[in-house]
UniProtKB/TrEMBL annotation:
<feature type="transmembrane region" description="Helical">
    <location>
        <begin position="106"/>
        <end position="125"/>
    </location>
</feature>
<dbReference type="GO" id="GO:0005886">
    <property type="term" value="C:plasma membrane"/>
</dbReference>
<feature type="transmembrane region" description="Helical">
    <location>
        <begin position="218"/>
        <end position="234"/>
    </location>
</feature>
<keyword id="KW-1133">Transmembrane helix</keyword>
<protein>
    <submittedName>
        <fullName>YihY/virulence factor BrkB family protein</fullName>
    </submittedName>
</protein>
<feature type="transmembrane region" description="Helical">
    <location>
        <begin position="188"/>
        <end position="211"/>
    </location>
</feature>
<keyword id="KW-0812">Transmembrane</keyword>
<keyword id="KW-1003">Cell membrane</keyword>
<keyword id="KW-0472">Membrane</keyword>
<dbReference type="InterPro" id="IPR017039">
    <property type="entry name" value="Virul_fac_BrkB"/>
</dbReference>
<feature type="transmembrane region" description="Helical">
    <location>
        <begin position="146"/>
        <end position="168"/>
    </location>
</feature>
<feature type="transmembrane region" description="Helical">
    <location>
        <begin position="254"/>
        <end position="275"/>
    </location>
</feature>
<feature type="transmembrane region" description="Helical">
    <location>
        <begin position="41"/>
        <end position="61"/>
    </location>
</feature>
<dbReference type="Pfam" id="PF03631">
    <property type="entry name" value="Virul_fac_BrkB"/>
</dbReference>
Amino acid sequence: MSDDEKIPRSRLAPRVPPPSQWWPHVKSLAEYLTRTEVHTYAFSVAANTILSLFPFIVMLFMMSRQVFHSQAMTAVVGDMVSYFLPANQEFVVRNMALLVHPRGRVQVFSIAMLLISSSSVFLPLEVALNRVWGVKKSRSYVVNQIISLGLAMAVGLLALVSVAFTAAQNTVLAVVFFGHTHNFIFNGIAHFFLGITAAFLSVSIFFLIYWVLPNRKLPVRVVLPTAIVTGLLWDGAKELYVMLLPWLDLRSAYGPFAVSVTLMMWAFLTGLLLLGGAHSCATRHALQMVREEDRKEAMEEAAARVS
């Protein structure tokens, strides 16, 4: 589908809320997020995200230790994983770091698992985003695999760049503080820069998903604002989720499986947030198309009366 392709107004009008009212927008989003198919997509994404998350973390540790030979990058990988995960950060970081050893078998397996599972993550997302944007035909299996592998490599590259950038920042800060890094001022500044880098990484990942996965061309100006808002909301939602975890008391219900359940629930909520952002973006874009069509019709009617 081309950039200028438009969804017929007959399909848009019954579903697009009035532009001057905010409540219909909220109601439309709530109705979308309570659909059974949306929850199915979110659960599918959550399950495959868990499968690819741990190999991805091992790969980052392996690249930092054995490719770049940087202890600073290795430390930043641990800090960034702790920042993104809602709970049990020390458990995950410690066990993932132990899997990185010089024999290389686990690393190769991790990379293979990441590349294989990435296609499973992006396949239900493509179907869901195509439904949101009114695209009836999905990509072929081969093309979908190519797109999925490309997205997985792009996310990995973004993560490595973010890790390297944060490690360089910490090195510069250590020089500025003359090596006195064990104090709350240094830790506060370092955590602030880590938060900025993590927010940039989150927004970049959401942008790539919104822009690349739908089987139609979308202008950057359409998806970028949604990616920014969704990425920042995701960071805020993570903090809220962390605050609610003690009230959920998952460990008493699931015992040793509480770690997996905690991550699975967060991945599911992330999937819902991602799909909700896509729905809002498509609704806003549809409203803009309707207004442009009204403007053109008014201009044509005015020109016809003059002539």
